[in-house]
Amino acid sequence: MSTSERRASVRTGVVWDAVVARLEPNARVVDIGGGTGGFAVRLAREGHAVTVVDPSPDALAALARRADEAGVAGLVTGVQGDLTDIGTHVAPGSADVVLCHGVLEVVPDPAAALRTITGVLREGGLLSLLVAQRHAAVVARAMAGHFAQARALLDGSDPVGKVGRRFTHDEVGTLLEQAGFTTRSVHGIRVFADLVPGSLLDLEPGSTQALVELEQAVASRPEYLPLATQVHVLAQR
Ligand SMILES: C[S@@+](CC[C@H](N)C(=O)[O-])C[C@H]1O[C@@H](n2cnc3c(N)ncnc32)[C@H](O)[C@@H]1O
Fold it and tell me: To test ligand 1's pocket by mutation, which of 106, 229, 231 has the most ligand atoms within 8 angstroms of CB?
């Protein structure tokens, strides 16, 4: 396994397990900002029909190649589009599950975007939401010696940067509630993964698997949530 594959397994392990545990067979999944299809193609291999909506033509081309190579092209549809106008690409109430991983950070109005997602989900359908978490970024900035940036992040007055907006767990909960969702589970993602030097994973046999297991063990412990780089919420319409 390459270094990037090892990193990917640590990053996606907890989210993947939480999502697949709740999927009904042959689910209709919409992956908003699904990019090159890392998640979508895996889901298609499990028999689910996945529509990836992403504004990037390059990402969609890579998605098509990946789906083809995996022999699941018939279950994966790529659509060039945007979270803000998702209703024009996906029929109302047609999705069993919507994935919105790493996208809410970059839309101009997160509350409006969540309301739009509500519209494409069927009654009782599930939203898997993964967003950047603010508290961990404060710690990371401070540890790197960027104290003024850490201070700006602390009270949420930081400029919207490369990764976009960051959220606290409470902010995500409020946004979801206002959009009509009921939270079913909350997980802290990458509690330790971004603090561990990559060389350690390369050199120590078995360390990646041990880190994946540690991430799984802390993911649902609220006391570790503020340290997580991302928050993952499963919420029901
Ligand atoms: C940080 S990547 C996340 C990719 C993937 N969802 C994941 O979790 O690994 C963000 C993705 O969202 C797409 N994206 C950016 N702005 C978007 C928008 N307004 N609506 C939908 N997708 C968007 C990008 O093209 C990119 O593929």
Answer: 106
Mean pLDDT for the chain overall = 91
pLDDT average per 10 residues of sequence, the chain (237 residues)? 67 90 96 95 97 97 97 97 92 97 94 96 97 92 90 76 84 96 96 84 83 92 95 97
Nearest CA to ligand 1 atom 13: 33
Nearest to 106 by CA among 171, 32, 38: 32
The string over 32-42, giving b where at least 16 C-beta atoms fall within 10 Å of a residue's C-beta and e elsewhere, is bbbbbbbbbbb
Contact 148, 187 (CB under 8 A): no
The CA distance from 90 to 152, in Å, is 38
Q: What are the pLDDT digits (tens) for 55-103?
A: 999 999 999 999 999 999 999 999 999 999 898 989 999 999 999 999 9
